[in-house]
Request: fold
Amino acid sequence: MRREYTLAGLCAGLLLSLDALAEPLPQRWVSAGGAATEWVVELGGEPRLVGVDTTSQHPASLQALPSVGYQRQLSAEGVLTLTPDLLLGTEEMGPPPVLDQLRSAGVRIEQLSAASDLAALEDNLQRLGALLGEPQRAQAAVDDFRQRLDELQRQIAALPAEAPGVLLLIGQGGSNPLVAGRGTVAEWLLQRAGARNLAQHEGYKTLSSEALAALDADWLVVTDRQLRGAEMQQALLAQNPALASSRVVREGHLLSLDPTLLTGGLGPRLPATLEQLARTFYPDLQPLSADAR
Reply:
């Protein structure tokens, strides 16, 4: 079944690449959306990037490129200054009037899916592979991503331990954090790392300090768009005194997460992040095999 699936993907990628060959491949790219940009780099397209948005921070070499601002608040003038052939992003990219203005100016717009779904990821990479002239490399990236996730899930399923209850909190400079609920990339990440998301609401919403403490999480995974590390955790607890006295904090079960991992769908750094989280939740978990890496 896996062989048939892979062959189908290769055929689809070949058809996409043949379509792309009907016109010259874009050579000057602006990319808005952390995961999308990281995949461009992963597939060998970094030399084509002439600008990125503020969520595109990995690898560090991208920080030398001109910034076009935040992916949801792009400026047509800022993008056009870089004379790109292509603006790449996801459905999160905008605002729509700016995208319409860029299309009218002759900039090709390509929007990938930001869904936390492996089928969406495969489609994204096939499209990127065609645009870069690298369909085989794109399919290999899909296969590697799937293999690493499958191996991690197999190891987690073999453990006798009960899945820990976890909350993922997204702060903004230490303010009242958003709690990741159902249908989010954050929940996808927690589940694939072998955790139970204790938040049952849809999307992201704020909860009171008392409500957070009452959920009695085994672990807190915390990220912030402005603060990092110990400073981020201290700001969170200062704003949420009930949480500061909870069991999860007393036990020191707070983990920090890079916020760009949650931007623009499933990115290439996620398998390594999932393994790191899973090995924290399950200390007896073995490292992934070399083949799965």
Residues 17-21 have pLDDT under 50 and may be disordered. The two ends are 22 Å apart (CA to CA).
